[in-house]
Amino acid sequence: MTLNPNLAVLSLGSNLGDRRNFIAKAIVRIHERVGTVTRVSNLYETPAWGFESTPFYNAALTLHTYKPAHDLLAIEDELGRERKMGGYEARTIDIDLITYNDDIISTDTLTVPHPLMQERQFVLVPMRDLNLDWRHPILQKYLPELARQSADTTICRLVSKLDNPLDRYDLQRYNYIAIEGNIGAGKTTLTNRIAFDFNAKTVLERFADNPFLPKFYEDQPRYAFPLEMSFLADRYQQISDDLAQFDLFKDFIVADYHVFKSLIFAKVTLSDDEYRLYRKLFDIIYREMPKPD
Fold it and tell me: If we measure between CA atoms, which residue out of 7, 251, 40, 44 comes closest to residue 134?
């Protein structure tokens, strides 16, 4: 499994029954079953495309998923789509895979990017709401240019906003989050996943650069104190610098450690006298350190 999931764009439509409700429920179920829905467009109404029928409600979303592109074709069936033989038809829910990373896919069952996306304003207009820095890998054009040059003159009428499943978590109210746990528990994996899904900056613990670590393994009693002080100073410097130099393009910071762990390691590696001195220094430094929210 790759560290970061795949980024897919899905187009959703409905022109039967409670159209808004069908799309809203589909977004929630995709988020629960398929991957993380990270962005959701506004809801638009457009005439039926390619056949005579009642108008559609349309929307688009971005999805972080570990599923292969071909597996996403089953989403409609999982959501209760009833298919009929033939061409276009009225439907309670219609879901198309528009993009999958920057991949170009051409098989008997799937073509990505969607071969008709540039001809459909009901796809292009909602996609522009997603604020994607995406260029069509075949046509080499960005979304605004595709929309301007499209032969489709259909007007997409704005209906309302749609809820984003991520909004319920409201992680953006936290400026600094720390993940802590035992070695091998998955701290870094979780930190990277949160950062990827929620647009956060990562602060990852540094081990390899500590000059005292190899010496500590050779002579623990001699190098335990300078090792722990070095780690403490480095963690203080790293957290302070990263919070002071906040990335304007990220919403918050998430770290895969909390500096309080230093006390736990020091209690194990230091003698009693060294630990008492270390604890005094730690308390002085800790008072000045930014605390996780």
Answer: 7
- The DSSP output letter for 57 is E
Distance separating alpha carbons of residues 183 and 45, to the nearest angstrom: 52
Q: Where are the domains of the chain?
A: 6-167, 169-288
Please tell me the CATH code under which domain 169-288 is placed. Answer: 3.40.50.300
The angle subtended at Cα 30 by Cα 255 and Cα 107, nearest 5°, is 105
pLDDT exceeds 90 at position 137: yes
Q: Mind telling me the catalytic residues?
A: 256
CB atoms under 10 Å from CB of 170, counted, come to 8
Q: Which pLDDT does position 189 carry in this prediction?
A: 92
State the pLDDT at residue 1.
40
pTM, two decimals, is 0.71
pLDDT at 19 over 50: yes
